[in-house]
Input
Amino acid sequence: MLDPAQKALAFGARIAVTGAPIRTLAEMRQHFPDYNTEPNPNTIDPASMRRVDDSWSWNVNSQGLPPAGNPGPGLCEVYERLTSAKGGRR
Output
């Protein structure tokens, strides 16, 4: 499941993301009390993502086994792997 997402989110891929402004730390801690990292105010809380060429997509409501090419709930794990492999560069 992770391989299609890694290919879709390869460095240089054109991705369209929709979402809402990131929540404040206080708002996040209402639901996740142990969360302590101050969010970057220049980020968003994603609701959907897609490659501009429409070869891949993900949305926050993805449940169960995703269709081929869609990473579903594993998206955050893939993103973390990709950014850590590049030394945290985003």
